[in-house]
Amino acid sequence: MNKSFQDLEHDDMTDGIRRRTVESLESAADSVRAAGVEGSGAISDLAHETGERLDSSAAYVRTFAGGDVLASLRDTVQRNLAGSLVVAASAGLVAGLSLRAFCRPSQSGSDAKAAVAK
Question: Where do the structural domains in the chain lie, given as residue ranges?
Answer without folding.
Answer: 1-64, 66-105
